[in-house]
Amino acid sequence: MVTGTADVTHELAAFLRTRRERLDPRELGLPPRRQTRRTPGLRREEVAELAGISVDYVVRLEQARGLRPSADVVEALAGALRLTPDERAYLFGLARQHPRDAGGPATAAAPPLARLVEDLSPRPAMLMNHRFDVLAWNSAMARLFVDFGALPPGRRNAIWVCLVHPGMRERYVDRGSVVRDGVAHLRTAWAAHPEDRVLAALIAECATRDEEFARLWDARDVKLNGRGRKLLRHPDVGVIEVEFETLRPVQDPDQVLVVHRAADEDSQSALDRLCALDQVE
Known about the structure:
The chain is of the alpha+beta class.
């Protein structure tokens, strides 16, 4: 029955029941039962055993008796019911919980996204994971900021390049604002992934090498800005103002696409000259 507002407790119950009833016990390697099954799929007892929770808890969930399962219980149920990634995300949403990262952050660009980054040329574009590691970039991005390919893999990180790379310290006209935003973005990422040791090491290094970073980190400002402007002082073509837009692919939510474009005609002319350097070389 479709209603005007969603009753998430009853929807959670119905979703669990339908997914339980769709499973074939034989495909899960469960022992055959002598007693004839009166309902299709798994029994509640079997789901409870597979998930490592009590039968009574499964019963109460399926009867919509006001329970709010923890993230651990939701993960266990998703595994027991063999949910697809989309179904798993839906179950976490119904339970009002946040899923934990299954395999850690992406360390390589998804091939379709890597191709998209290249196809966006001559607009500077790059692909990053949640810790701001740069996974893919096009030649325009390398020209505008830094050639990430010339950096060691462990240094291909947008925050490290912005705050620590010696060639970028004078690149930003308003470096103070860029640093403030970068630290606020980094703290937001850290709060969502406190178990990420690589991210923690990046934060510790930046705090050690930059007093301003350490001060701003202790201020605990947070920000998640998906669009904005940056004013750059480029050594080859002079001042360029760019607008940036950050997009998160549905299929690969751990990866974000950042696309830049000129903010005015003079900046577009400068970007055109910058991209033309690739053709000359």
